[in-house]
Design a protein that fits this description.
With 536 residues, the protein is mainly beta. It has 3 domains: 119 residues, Immunoglobulin-like (Sandwich); 176 residues, Immunoglobulin-like (Sandwich); 194 residues, Cupredoxins -  blue copper proteins (Immunoglobulin-like), CATH 2.60.40. The chain is built from 5 helices and 33 strands. The strands form 7 sheets. The chain has a 6-stranded mixed sheet with strand order 10-9-12-17-14-15, with no helix packed on it. Helix 3 links the parallel strand 23 and strand 24. The protein is globular, with a radius of gyration of 22 Å. The chain binds CU-O-CU linkage. CU-O-CU linkage binds next to strand 5 and strand 32.
């Protein structure tokens, strides 16, 4: 195993997209930023230098961070932010993981432009459990606003209503020629007949789940969230913010140009966004060919397309990569996730109320001191440990009473005993409107053992759980008007954030944290905090 060192300079840079220009926050001047390469077992040291006017922190999304919560990154959860002019070295070892993940800023809305890929190769000499592709390519999907994204969310918070949707979607930073700017070029992938290509697809968008497909080429899915899956073929994948998907394409055509598209998936009858990012796959020697084979993305609300893909995902569950699904459960939790409405006398556009979001009707309040520090140094008054394991009112999807809408506020965590097993049912409330919630858990992978529409029914639904080869991941879409059940082992001491990965919902409060402790052995407690850990 090696030590890999990276320098991430967070700097402002003028960027041109959609025929206009604005300053953005970047890492090393690029958005998407640098790809972080490592092998399983390597130790990674990233020196982050904050040279912008904002406070900054970086999260290594999906990296387990076993006992190294100090390097996880969410601001005010595992660290105080890195202030302007300061540096912080993230230091973690990649244990038992290989595949594609992403890094991104974890404060304010900076991850709009501060994000990039993490590529973890298997240990030296260890092959992939599928035929080795000839070429590998990172494909980062994103969103672009013409205006400053901090203004977008600040205006929305003042008014109490939803922020503007983005002006374009992007593939590797480029929208391609779109209606608002026909001259904007798109990402090009050049391929050669007879070769195979592994695309490491990452959804780094702020607020939208996306469909992705390529004209004339099937995608063989081999991995999601840095966990191998049983390979299967599909025309279209669906990918939520924070999720990653590795697919292999075979370049079987002799020539031509083929369209690659990324477009929103939103389980809503109202088309709030129908913009498509366009890139091209072109065969060697045919660059600039006058005709491109086109493809049309699925309609925005095609739940059928999304479910067909999601239901095909299974853990590889081989001898080398077994799916160790917890069978005996210590903590059985039921969390409702969704939007709500609270009074806001100053919210004009919201008519005296504001949209909020919560888990079990609790809107999480960001502390002003890191929760992990508060826990480690036993600082009182930063958080309470009374996060409820069930909603305050019996939840009924069909009988949506107004009492389900209001939330209370607090910085509450749920305490899990080290190495205990957890079953967590995430129930979408969908009371205000259909809502998708891609929920991300820091510090763990979990198994997605069940999913359904309407109300979760413990007696009936538990019988149908897949406890053999459920997909293992770190971010999961809670279906609109439905539920998912996940299981994991709390084998990582620390404070671990869980939140909706649609940034607007996180901002509104759809977040909480698990505190995993009671450890007494060396593997059950945190490594000591690094000397350069930022102060609040
Ligand atoms: Cu990718 Cu807490 O985030």
């Amino acid at each position: 195993a090696k030590v890999r060192r990276y320098n991430f300079n967070v700097v402002q840079k003028q960027a041109n997209r959609l025929c206009s220009s604005k300053p953005i926050v970047t890492v090393n001047g690029h958005s998407p930023g640098p790809t972080l390469y490592a092998r399983e077992g390597d130790t990674v040291l990233v020196n982050v230098a904050n040279r912008v006017k904002y406070n900054v922190s970086i999260h290594w999304h999906g990296i387990r961070q076993l006992r190294t919560g100090w390097s996880d990154g969410p601001a005010y959860i595992t660290q105080c932010p890195i202030q302007p002019g300061q540096n912080y070295v993230y230091n973690f070892t990649i244990t038992g993981q290989r595949g594609t993940l992403l890094w991104h800023a974890h404060i304010l809305w900076l991850r709009a432009t501060v994000h990039g890929a993490i590529v973890i190769l298997p240990k030296q000499g260890v092959p992939y459990p599928f035929p080795k592709p000839n070429v590998e390519q990172v494909v980062v999907l994103g969103e672009w606003w013409k205006s400053d994204t901090e203004n977008v969310i600040n205006e929305a918070l003042k008014s109490g209503v939803a922020p503007n949707v983005s002006d374009a979607h992007t593939i590797n930073g480029l929208p391609g020629p779109v209606s608002s700017c026909q001259t904007q070029g798109g990402f090009r992938l050049s391929v050669e007949n007879g070769k195979s290509y592994m695309l490491r697809i990452i959804n780094a968008a702020l607020n939208e789940e996306l469909f992705f497909k390529i004209a004339g080429h099937q995608l063989t899915v081999v991995e999601v969230d840095a966990v191998y899956v049983k390979p299967f073929k599909t025309d279209t994948i669906v990918i939520a913010p924070g999720q990653t998907t590795n697919v292999i394409i075979s370049a079987t055509k002799s020539s031509g140009q083929f369209m690659m598209v990324a477009s929103p998936f939103m389980d809503s009858p109202i088309a709030v966004d129908n913009k498509t990012a366009i890139a091209t796959v072109h065969y060697t020697g045919t660059l600039g060919a006058s005709t491109t084979t086109l493809t049309i993305p699925p309609p925005q609300n095609s739940t059928v397309t999304a479910n067909k893909f999601i239901d095909s995902l299974r853990s590889l569950n081989s001898k080398n990569f077994p799916a160790n699904v917890p069978l005996k459960i210590d903590h059985s939790l039921y969390f409702t996730v969704g939007l709500g409405i609270n009074p806001c006398p100053t919210c004009k556009a919201g008519n005296g109320s504001r949209v909020v979001a919560g888990i079990n009707n609790v809107t999480f309040v960001m502390p002003t001191y890191g929760l992990l520090q508060a826990h480690y140094f036993n600082k009182k008054g930063v958080f309470t440990t009374d996060f409820p394991g069930n909603p305050p009112h019996v939840f009924n999807f069909t009988g949506s009473g107004p009492k389900n809408l209001a939330t209370s506020t607090g910085t509450k965590v749920y305490r899990l005993k080290y190495n205990s097993t957890v079953q967590l049912v995430l129930q979408d409330t969908g009371i205000i409107s259909p809502e998708n919630h891609p929920v991300h858990l820091h510090g763990f992978n979990f198994f997605a053992v069940g999913k359904g529409l309407g109300n979760y029914n413990p007696k009936k639904d538990q019988k149908n759980f897949n406890l053999v080869d459920p997909v293992e991941r770190n971010t999961i879409g809670v279906p609109s008007g439905g539920w998912v059940a996940i299981r994991f082992r709390a084998d990582n001491p620390g404070v671990w954030f869980m939140h909706c990965h649609l940034e607007v919902h996180t901002t509104w409060g759809l977040k909480m944290a698990f505190l995993v402790d009671n450890g007494n052995g060396p593997n059950e407690s945190l490594v000591p905090p690094p000397k350069d850990l930022p102060k609040c």
